[in-house]
Amino acid sequence: MTASPFVLEYDTAAGALVSVRRFDDPDEAANAVLALERRHRDTPAIHVVMLTGESLDSLKATHGTYFRDAPDLPGSLVAAAAA
Predict the structure, then answer these.
(1) Which terminus of the chain is more solvent-facing, meaning fewer CB atoms within 10 Å of its CB: N or C?
(2) How do residues 9-52 score in pLDDT, each as one tens digit?
(3) Are 32 and 80 spatial neighbours (Cβ–Cβ below 8 Å)?
(4) In a 3-state reduction of DSSP, which class is residue 65?
(5) In what order do the strands lie in the sheet with 46-53?
């Protein structure tokens, strides 16, 4: 399995994952990070992070802090990660 970039939005104030999306193209993922950072520039509690992994499960294992509040991600997040 090949590693893919994932872009996460994490709300540090709420301690909750807002969204996660998987990309096939690293450049598209980087552009998404920039767009989300611009969108949230006035909301310092929202952190935008790009991580690389073979699957969402591998990211949960290596970066569990982002997923601790959501052991079973809602369907919308899982669908976005698969897109």
Answers:
(1) N
(2) 999 888 889 999 999 999 999 999 999 999 999 999 999 999 99
(3) no
(4) helix
(5) 16-22, 4-11, 46-53
CB 83 within 8 A of CB 38: no
Nearest by Cα to 51 from 29, 34, 36, 69: 29
Q: Look at 66 and 30; give whichever has higher pLDDT.
A: 30
Q: Are 17 and 9 in contact (CB under 8 A)?
A: yes
**Shortest CA distance to 56 belongs to which of 35, 30, 77?**
77
Q: Is 80 exposed, middle or buried (0-12, 13-18, 19+ CB in 10 A)?
A: middle
- The owner of tokens 């999306």 is 21
With 0-12 CB in 10 A as exposed, 13-18 as middle and 19+ as buried, what is 41? exposed
Please name the amino acid found at residue 71. Answer: P
